[in-house]
Amino acid sequence: xxxxxxxxxxxxxxxxxxxxxxxxxxxxxxxxxxxxxxxxxxxxxxxxxxxxxxxxxxxxxxxxxxxxxxxxxxxxxxxxxxxxxxxxxxxxxxxxxxxxxxxxxxxxxxxxxxxxxxxxxxxxxxxxxxxxxxxxxxxxxxxxxxxxxxxxxxxx
Length: 156
Prior knowledge:
Layout: H1 2-7, H2 11-17, H3 23-34, H4 48-51, H5 56-62, E1 64-70, E2 73-78, H6 86-93, E3 98-103, H7 106-137, H8 142-153
Parallel strand pairs: 2-3
Antiparallel strand pairs: 1-2
């Protein structure tokens, strides 16, 4: 309590800082307090197509990872439901849908959201390459093909 008071941090953060409890244990305890189940996340639990339709940067801010959308419900995990305004902001991401929340480790959520950002980057790069290939297949794109070949071969 002394550390929490002196540094003006929450008790759970103080216990983590002192090494008394892990972040996972604190999150589990929050689950008990708020009657939310704790989920040990796995990459296979995530509907990546669904996540890719959402603003990943905003999800990072909220420490929230949607897992799936089933009918009118969205199933998601959140790191800490006690942060003021977080639950309302999550609800705003999914208007007219029931959000079913569970808790998960902040580190696991952050790791999977990083993978979502990487997947989004790969999808974007793939789309650009597909458009480039289409352009190169155009019979009138001879000059473009020559320029691309020179760039790829380092002749420019």
